Amino acid sequence: MATAAAQKAAETEPGGAGSTAARAAEQQAAFDEAVAADERIEPRDWMPDAYRTSLIRQIAQHAHSEIIGMQPEANWITRAPSLRRKAILMAKAQDEAGHGLYLYSAAETLGVSRDELLDKLHSGRQKYSSIFNYPTLTWADVGAIGWLVDGAAITNQVPLCRCSYGPYARAMIRVCKEESFHQRQGYESLLALSRGTQAQHEMAQDAVNRWWWPSLMMFGPPDEESSHSEQSMTWKIKRHSNDELRQRFVDICVPQAESLGLTLPDPDLKWNEARGHHDFGPIDWTEFWDVLKGNGPCNDQRITQRRRAHEEGAWVREAAAAYATKQAGAPRADTAATAHGEATA
Ligand code: FAQ
């Protein structure tokens, strides 16, 4: 942030209560001005406490979703139908872990620690995306996740590349590039199944039937029930409402489903000439809120597995910390290499 107001806020002399209030007003004004001018807010800039809290909430939920999201697909790594599919799926799951790391790092710039965030995930005080509480029953689910879940993630996240908070926006640029590859591999995998044997085609259709509605729920509750949207859009954390992005996703998917030779499980889905969009049927919001309360088909399994992975990974964190401490006190790599009799040139 580098506006004149920001400069002025930074230069205000400390003083009595009057000057403290004036300074607070100037800081707020500088922040508002930067957001209005589409500038990025950076970690060291002043920001309202509520902005910081809401960002931590959203980025943490996003990070948790990335790492919990590895589980449904990991279920199929050992059973992928070919070496090529297995290599692709392993790379994708690793990408999701990487996205989690960028996002936890972005959240850390707001003054929270990764331990604190993971503790909140493990104790159920922070959420992760509803979508990852559904099971992956067949191989076709891996394709459906790539096409629909990654497709929904991209639709939601491309606007986040313009989020007002710099570290989150920058993390999103890389994440979206990778998600875009994920979406294409899902589409390609489903296409192969759809054009395969009758049984393969039916398996692809069944997966799309099960993942369609939960994918629409990923965008969050309808606008009138979205508690954070209005404020987040004023702060330019979110650029579009939940319903706007959901509609965009439906419009993108309809022609893609046609080229896949698959149908979407919604009898009310039809083009509305007047609106210039597809109308679609009602979403079962009772199911959505139920999943958020922990009652989805896989909530217990996902969180139990996550806690177990964290506990079993304790030795890795300890070893990495011990190594970092050792390196911090160690001579530079080039001198260390000489000490071991290796060439330094
Ligand atoms: N699931 O007021 P709003 C991925 C909660 S990444 C669970 O509308 P907001 C990659 C919401 O937190 C997928 N909870 O909230 C991948 C709030 O509760 P709170 C994750 C949900 O923040 C692919 C309450 O409902 N993506 O898929 C959900 O303005 C394949 C009221 O909602 C992101 O996180 C939900 N679906 O809008 C990985 C993107 N929706 O916090 C592996 C970033 C809402 O007050 C494999 N996040 N809630 O307790 C966002 O864009 C927003 O946070 C929304 C929700 C749009 C998700």
Explain what the structure shows.
The chain is an all-alpha fold. Helix content is 66%, strand content 2%. It has helices at residues 4-11, 17-36, 49-68, 70-74, 83-108, 114-122, 140-157, 166-194, 198-217, 229-234, 242-260, 285-295, 299-312, 314-329, 333-339, and strands at residues 270-272, 277-279. It has a two-stranded antiparallel sheet. A hairpin with a 4-residue loop joins strand 1 (270-272) and strand 2. It binds Phenylacetyl coenzyme A. Phenylacetyl coenzyme A binds at residues 57-58, 61-62, 65-66, 69, 96, 127, 129-130, 145, 149-150, 153, 156, 217-221, 226-229, 232, 238, 242, 292. Phenylacetyl coenzyme A (FAQ) binds next to helix 3, helix 7 and helix 10. Residues 1-29, 326-345 are annotated as: Disordered. This is 1,2-phenylacetyl-CoA epoxidase subunit A. Residues 1-13, 326-339 have a biased composition (Low complexity). It comes from Streptomyces alfalfae. Pfam families: PaaA_PaaC.
